[in-house]
């Protein structure tokens, strides 16, 4: 580029008194001039340039988000009672629970159907003791586990939405996925205390929820 053509990284003239430090200083001065030009270009790009394609993508994403801003995907296994209790609670908060098997198939494969209905603002994973598992050859160490589809979908939404928009409700003694250690879970207590905790998580994620709605 022309801006860099006039920059020299060495001395223009030599003499008997020229030292290695003179060469080094000339090189440093050339680098400093180059750095200043690059910094000026960066500032100009940030202030004046607009990437139209990026703007279009951002606008499209915002529109998609607004269409599903009250949709909450419920990831579940075989525990129908817990699934129904959580779904009805989400409806009570005037949000829209998305349960995959309740959605029309439209000739899609399971993964296609899942991806189609995964455009949501929040996801709740129900870690209920539907399966058992443990190390091979150590059958005595088997522990209650959530179904494999629940673990898969939990990971999917964690990557898609980020952890702040994914919540796990955990049944008693259910094994926690090792890669998810350290993440807080909401205990699925019989007293229903999980409801208030879940409401706080939803409010933290930006949903407008009112505690009075669960008392109606």
Strand order of the largest sheet: 2-1-3-6-7
Please give the alpha-carbon distance between the first and last residues: 69 Å
CATH class of the largest domain reads: Alpha Beta
Shape: elongated
Strand content: 5-15%
* Number of structural units classed as domains: 2
- Structural class by secondary-structure content: alpha/beta
Unreliable stretches: 52-64
- Helix count from the secondary structure assignment: 7
**Architecture of the largest domain in CATH?**
3-Layer(aba) Sandwich
Number of strands: 7
Q: What is the H-and-E element order?
A: HHHEHEHEEEHEEH
Report the mean per-residue pLDDT as an integer. Answer: 78
Q: Outline the biggest β-sheet.
A: 5 strands, parallel
CATH topology of the largest domain: Rossmann fold
Indicate the multimeric state: single chain
Determine the CATH superfamily of the largest domain.
Toll/interleukin-1 receptor homology (TIR) domain
Helix content: 40-55%
What is the radius of gyration computed over CA atoms, rounded to a whole number of angstroms?
A: 28 Å
């Amino acid at each position: 580029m022309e801006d860099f053509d006039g920059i020299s990284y060495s001395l223009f003239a030599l003499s008997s008194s020229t030292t290695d430090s003179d060469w080094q200083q000339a090189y440093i001065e050339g680098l400093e001039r180059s750095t200043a030009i690059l910094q000026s270009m960066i500032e100009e790009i940030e202030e004046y340039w607009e990437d139209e394609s990026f703007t279009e993508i951002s606008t499209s994403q915002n529109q998609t988000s607004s269409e599903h801003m009250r949709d909450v995907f419920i990831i579940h296994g075989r525990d129908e009672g817990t699934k129904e209790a959580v779904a009805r609670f989400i409806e009570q908060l005037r949000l829209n629970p998305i349960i995959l098997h309740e959605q029309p198939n439209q000739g899609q494969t399971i993964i296609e159907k899942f991806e189609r209905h995964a455009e949501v603002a929040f996801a709740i994973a129900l870690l209920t003791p539907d399966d058992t598992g443990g190390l091979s050859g150590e059958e005595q160490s088997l522990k209650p586990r959530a179904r494999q589809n629940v673990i898969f979908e939990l990971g999917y939404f964690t990557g898609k939405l980020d952890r702040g928009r994914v919540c796990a409700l955990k049944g008693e003694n259910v094994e926690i996925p090792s890669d998810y250690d350290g993440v807080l879970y909401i205990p699925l207590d019989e007293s229903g205390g999980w409801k208030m905790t879940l409401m706080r998580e939803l409010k933290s994620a930006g949903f407008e929820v009112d505690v009075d709605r669960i008392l109606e």
